[in-house]
Amino acid sequence: MKVNFYFVRHGETLFNKLGLMQGQGDSPLTDDGIKQLEETASVLRKVHFHHIYCSSSERAWDSANIIAKYHTAEPVLMKELKEFDFGKFDGEKIKDIQYRLKATEVYNDWSDVGGEDWLSFQTRVKKGFKKILAECEDEENVLIVSHGAFLLHMVEVLDPFNTNHHRDLLRQEDGAIAVPNGSVTPFVYEDGKYFFDSKPLTASKLREINPKTIQFYFIRHGETKFNEKKLIQGWCDSDLTPRGEAQVRAAKKELSNITFTRAYVSTTERTRETADILLEDREIPVVYDKRLKEVYYGEAEGASVEKNDYKKEYITTNWAQFKGETLKDVQERMQLLFRDIVDSADDGDCILLVSHGDFFFVLCETYFGLTKENIFKDAEKKNTNPVPNAGIASFEYQNGKFMVHHLMLEKLTK
After folding, report:
1. Rounded-to-integer distance, Cα 310 and Cα 288, Å
2. Is residue 10 annotated as a catalytic residue, yes or no?
3. What are 138-175's pLDDT values in tens digits?
4. What domains are defined for the chain?
């Protein structure tokens, strides 16, 4: 029987942040720890986990639940997967007990301070994995969510004849043996033996070793009544005009020879109407996502473009004084959106995005290094509109980077 294991260390906790020893005592995940696990969860979403097991400590359970939201398996809590027991040193400052930690690289006997000894640890690890394997079938994938020192000791229990190999795998660039919070360490059980051949991998490292290429086509919605009246239109909304519908039908023709795997659409009605026209003859999954919405202009929404001077706010994408979004606000939701899209896609997918003009400018600055000011200058030289209604842009994601093919065009073909 072969079982594929994915060992995840919990996210950063309060004690981790404060530099305190943390064994079978507990402390909550920090905001950064939650973000670490959300990244890990995203990159693992394409793995089908048949089983999820986690330490019964809350920090591990919370971490497992973040990953489990993409899977049907529910986390099973196991005391056998808890961290090594450091006895009375639990909660002490790590810097104050360096003398003890340096006694050996992976110290495994804390019984003299009321903690765990090596035999006790070995016994519970073997018992825990025996229980797990009894519930598995051949070629199943198992997620284990546990702790850093647990992994360092676990590998020696499950594969005791390759201690030096394990330590080399777990050694960081600075020479220390460590397991980063939120990292993933794959290993395999096959016919009575465990095989460890991977370092602990962060989410970004996992993406690097599993490269994919994804094609994107971005289309702005057709002309709306607010566009026609030259009113600022971000999160407020208005219907497509007859001209806007015609623009979208022309764009549909331009895209007719492109096979899309999936479409992501802003939740405003003007973009949904645009997507309905574009996809009326296609049967592909459609995801409506608020993170694709236009920049929020706050109290400037609905104002006349011609009667107000918002050039500074528009060029810098800073609508804070109107209780709207800043460039950073839009970038944060955009980056989470593209993380989810990329991690959900397969190599070779082609994705349609239906969104908005100013959102596209932020995308250009965030991923292509093209500022709004420079895009406008270039368009002025060419006497073109940089973001025409129903304009189409295309770009590519490859191995962690985005590359633009062309900015917004009304026609892809001559």
Report:
1. 30
2. yes
3. 999 999 999 999 999 999 999 988 888 888 888 877 76
4. 2-208 (3.40.50.1240), 213-409 (3.40.50.1240)
